[in-house]
Amino acid sequence: MTTESAKTLVEVRYGTEVVDGINIFYRESGIPQKRAVVLLHGYPASSHMYRDVLVALGADWFLIAPDYPGFGNSGFPDPKDYEYTFDNLARTIDKFLDQKGITEFVLGMQDYGAPVGYRLATKYPDRVKGLIVMNGNAYEEGFHPETSAPVRDFWNERTAEKEAAIATQLMSLEGIKWMYVEGTRKPEGINPDNWVLDFARIDRPGQEKVQLDLFYDYQNNVKSYPEWQAYLRERQPPTLVAWGSNDPIFVPAGAEAYRKDLKEIDFYMFDTGHFALEEDAVQIIDKIRDFLARRAFAD
């Protein structure tokens, strides 16, 4: 952290909110009466990915980062009892925010956070005061053609053989480590606790079914892209894009595509991989702080 940032570090609090019988774990910082920033995590991560953001920005705003059902420290209902789709994840987070009394907020979205967040933004366009997009795809051109091919093939036909291939590629310890270190400047500087903790969650009995259901449902996010793009064009929400340019999953073209629909955009590319906060947290946090003060919460 910079000297300036260190002066404003705050404590992070941890809690659980019961939503429809499911324990939803969350991290928060700042005073709840202040303007809110909701931080939505990606796959295979959890709210843990926002640990530095929560500490650095809680002095000025209220920040809250929940774990989705089946992720992080949240409850893990059986797929027979809870439908693991992005529509349903968004419904759960919607109810979570309602129960927490959070009615207006800026959305921070990374990876899976984008399809969860855009469902909230299109449902409540007047409540969402801005977007912080970190390798959160909303455009077809954002997919890496090679790494996305197995998943697209999976969408065409869900077979046991393809499920096994997806599990090996994206749910193994090595696959999860690859998501964290591929494209980074200094792989040896990325904390291995990230993939060790994520894999420990993904490796629980029953998790394979949960994650495969979500991978299969991701095709419905792509079908929703036109709706999300229309929202961006019509509502013009204040938006910050902070993108790891070496992302092996969502390529820079996905970031550039936001320029087509947004007239004004804070746009930054970082020489790192999919989880840009892991290597460039200080720089990205400074951009977020400036964006919130100057644009999202300027009034």
Task: Characterize the structure shown.
- The chain is α/β, with parallel strands linked by helices and 299 residues long.
- It has one domain: 3-Layer(aba) Sandwich (Rossmann fold).
- The chain has twelve helices and eight strands.
- The chain has helices spanning 3-6, 51-57, 86-99, 113-123, 149-156, 160-170, 173-181, 193-202, 207-235, 252-256, 258-261, 277-296; strands spanning 13-19, 22-29, 36-40, 62-66, 105-110, 128-134, 239-244, 266-270.
- It has an eight-stranded mixed β-sheet with strand order 1-2-4-3-5-6-7-8, with helices on both faces.
- It holds the Pfam family Abhydrolase_1.
- Keywords: Hydrolase.
- Residues 36-280 form the AB hydrolase-1 domain.
- GO terms for molecular function: epoxide hydrolase activity.
Write a concise synopsis of the structure shown:
This protein has 299 residues and is of the alpha/beta class. It has helices at residues 3-6, 51-57, 86-99, 113-123, 149-156, 160-170, 173-181, 193-202, 207-235, 252-256, 258-261, 277-296; strands at 13-19, 22-29, 36-40, 62-66, 105-110, 128-134, 239-244, 266-270. Helix 3 (86-99) crosses helix 4, helix 4 packs across helix 9 (207-235) and helix 7 (173-181) runs antiparallel to helix 8.
